[in-house]
Amino acid sequence: METKKLFIFLPALITIFFLSQAVIAQPPADIDKRLEHLKDRLTLNDDQTTQIRDILERADAERDRLRELNEENREKMRSAMRDLRDETDQQIDSILTADQKTEYEKMKKELRENRGRRGPRDGYRHHERQ
Asked: Can you give the residue range of the structural domain that contains 99?
């Protein structure tokens, strides 16, 4: 009886393990959301979209690395994250046209103004607070 249960549950466990590995290997959904938002708002072309995806993926990996290195020192981590954000913004800014740069600055200003408000945690306001 125990052997039958093992043969039933073992394939299920193996399947769950491999599916979880596939999910880990995929880029985070928030990068896709951020990229889609930037693409729509800034009317990015395909080349810009590819370049910005690369920038966001590198920044995401660096953010994870910084969290691991500085998990004991919150102030140091906050400073490193601020530097990373500034560097990422500069990299994105360098591939935008003048009009796109203006819109990007407007987006960043809106984010700063909305930072203290409650709302969606994906970094972008989908609706104004009533």
From this structure: 29-111
Number of domains in the chain: 1
| Residues contacting residue 89 through CB under 8 Å, at least 6 positions apart | 108
User: Does 9 fall in a domain?
Assistant: no
SS3 85: helix
Rounded CA separation 24/115 (Å): 29
> Which residues neighbour 51 within 8 Å (Cβ) at sequence distance 6 or greater?
95
What is each CA distance from 113 to 26, 108, 109, in whole angstroms?
Answer: 32, 9, 6
Which of 110, 122, 62 lies closest to 86, judged by CA?
62
Model confidence pLDDT, tens digit, residues 93-109: 999 999 999 999 999 89
Q: Is 0.90 surpassed by the pTM of this model?
A: no
* Distance from C-alpha of 16 to C-alpha of 20, rounded to nearest angstrom: 6
